[in-house]
Amino acid sequence: MATDYIRLNNMRFYAYHGLFPEEKKLGQRFELDLEIACDLSSAGQNDNIETSIDYAHVYSIVRSCVEGEKFNLLEALAEHIAKTVQQNWKVNRLKLKIRKSSPPISGDLNNVEIEINRSYE
């Protein structure tokens, strides 16, 4: 079985996730990188989107997850996205990074990031 990858990098959304009331009220920018390991050989051979994973549909699903339900933790948001993607397509493995660009941390940093890796083989 082939292991191929679809990657959607640096997706940006404005949402209201976080532990603190100001995060839930004011919101902030989130950036996500999603890597899906799957078998794309059929799509490559027959040039048919029906046998592949439609990037636009993946983006739409991720956007709905991020901009929909509110989560306290990035970890919970990541699990929700991973589960939703896995329910929609035949995914062997998935890697998801979520960055919060304005974390409520007193200090000088660009962002905080979590990464999850899930295997469905």
> What is the 3D form?
elongated
Count of alpha and pi helical runs: 4
Query: For the report, how would you describe the main beta sheet?
Result: 4 strands, antiparallel
Helix and strand pattern:
EHEHHHEE
- Uncertain segments: none
Distance between the termini: 11 Å
Number of DSSP E strands = 4
Second rung of CATH, namely the architecture: 2-Layer Sandwich
CATH topology: GTP Cyclohydrolase I, domain 2
Radius of gyration (CA) equals 16 Å
Strand composition percent: 25-35%
Summarize the amount of helix as a percent range.
Answer: 25-40%
- Quaternary state of this entry equals single chain
Can you put this structure into words, describing what you see?
This protein is α+β, with helices and mostly antiparallel strands and 121 residues long. The chain has a single domain (4-119), classed as GTP Cyclohydrolase I, domain 2. 33% of the residues lie in helices and 32% in strands. It has four helices and four strands; from the N terminus they run βαβαααββ. It has helices spanning 21-26, 41-46, 55-67, 74-88; strands spanning 4-15, 28-38, 93-100, 112-119. Strands 1-2-3-4 form a four-stranded antiparallel beta sheet. The longest helix has 15 residues, at 74-88. The mean pLDDT is 94.
Q: What's a quick, concise take on this entry?
A:
This protein has 121 residues and is an alpha+beta fold. The protein has helices spanning 21-26, 41-46, 55-67, 74-88, and strands at residues 4-15, 28-38, 93-100, 112-119.
